[in-house]
Amino acid sequence: MNPCEEEFTIENHKHKFAVWAVGRAASVKDQRFSVESAKKLIDHINLQEYIDKPDCLPDNFDTIHDTWCESLIKKSIEIFDKKNSPEKISYGVAAKLINVYLKTILVCGGYHEHEKVKKIHPPIDRLLLTELAKKDDSPLKKIWKEYAEKGWSKFDSADYQVVIRSVKDFVQSKALYTIESFWTGHQ
């Protein structure tokens, strides 16, 4: 094997695919960045250590998720070329990077029934929030509408926390990813 080539393993393959998915999903009009930048960000917080290891997810997921988001925001300042990229990513974009990655490797990777995986935050976007605003008749409808109008890529930490708390209230004891039954991005 060429010493410059990375050994091909299914874990490497999953990581590369998840990074590609993240780079596509989290890049928005005012915050465009390459898949290469997405990889640098994901590698910075070592999310690949959870590939096929849902038991290793932290028990305090919400706290570590916030730490990861803040770390990604700081790292984005270092890695972006200011001519073609934003100065830094928003909290909403950082959360989307993490959530899409973990969804790809764990939720859709066959671990969706694992208790720790059920606590992974779903990717939040305008399509999900808009559909919830249309179809949910609960008091949360106002929150879905307000944050759909604001746009997930403009979320700061406080905005994101309101939406995730609302997701938890909506799904109650079910896995958080089940709210994605309202996501229309697949159509």
What does the main sheet amount to? none
| Percent in strands | under 5%
Alpha-carbon Rg, integer = 16 Å
Shape: globular
Query: Regions with pLDDT < 50 over 5+ consecutive residues?
Result: none
Short description:
This protein is mostly helical and 187 residues long. The protein contains seven helices and no strands.
List keywords for this structure.
single chain, 187 residues, mainly alpha, globular
Report what the structure shows.
- The chain has 187 residues and is mainly alpha-helical.
- The protein has one domain (10-182).
- Helices cover 55% and strands 0% of the residues.
- It has 7 helices and no strands.
- The chain has helices at residues 10-26, 35-44, 61-79, 91-111, 126-135, 141-150, 157-171.
- α1 (10-26) packs across α2 and α3 (61-79) packs across α4.
- The longest helix has 21 residues, at 91-111.
Write the layout of secondary structure elements.
Layout: H1 10-26, H2 35-44, H3 61-79, H4 91-111, H5 126-135, H6 141-150, H7 157-171
Helix pairs in contact: 1-2, 1-4, 2-3, 3-4, 5-6
